[in-house]
Amino acid sequence: MTQVAPPTPERGHRRRRRDRSRRSRFVTTTVITAVVICAAAIITQGWLPTVGSAKQTVAVKSSQPPQFYEAPPTKPMPTPKPKPKPKPKPKPTPTPTHTQAVTPVPDGPPPGDWTLAFDDEFNGTSLDTTKWSTGWGGGTGITAPVNSTEDDCYDPAQVAEGGGALSLTLTRESESCGISAQYAAGLINTDGKFNFTYGFIQARVWLPGTPGNSDYVANWPGVWTDGQNWPDDGEIDIAEGINGNVCAFFHDAATVYQALSPGGGNGCPNGVYTEGWHTFAANWEPGIITWYYDGVDIGSVTSGVTSAPMFLILDYDAQSPAHAPDTMKVDYIRVWQHP
Hints:
Shape: globular
Number of strands: 20
Structural class: mainly beta
Number of helices: 1
Order of helices and strands: HEEEEEEEEEEEEEEEEEEEE
Strand content: 35-45%
């Protein structure tokens, strides 16, 4: 059989086939490239910071799908200013303390002819009402204070006897006694039950000191006598707490108080009379009154001395700055007279 040679391909026939293959590959590459570029643009737009922008996006930790907030631009840290050194606080000026003289403490009046006219040792379990009344001015129950500057009412509940001593307690509580007071105080007196003219009066007393300064007498304690018509009949302050000191005074219509001489001078002798038992006494004689603290003569007055009958008073009142609760104690009070 006669073999026939295959026809010779026309020029360009095979070449056109290669060209179509090349065009196909080119189109495919172009589409893929475009897809990649678009995807890159989308990713760049959503996730990367815009060129030239000073703001950033920061992911917030949450159990919810990721959220984003716009972080503020960072401010430069200010330069810290040096702190001024604290000024040293001035040290408080210490309150001068009294110097306690070491002296014997005699019990009773000076030598002479004496008779014990009144005595309460406070050895019972309640106040002896045959000798004493509570309150002031003859009233019963809660009564108004002696002095209008006091911020207290006298309350029988502040008076107690036991353990061999009388206790007069100052407490902070609102009371009404013709005034509205912030404190309740204790006071007893012998008016109408024991009144006397002349004699040696002595009391053994425990006075509280102020917290932080035990030498400074707390509040307004008093061991004193008074007449029926004040100030004409006079007032003998045997021991009165004034501004932290224990003082002795005589008041009458002519003077607010009389200075004592010799001895204490102004009536407030040096000495520590707090946080311990001390005796305070006054010898009231015609024309002269002499005071003794722990048996030591601290001075006397000789002018205007009263001859009017007196009664005894023991009290523990509020004086600014008041410290409460606190208690003044009295071991005994005695009065001797000449027969």
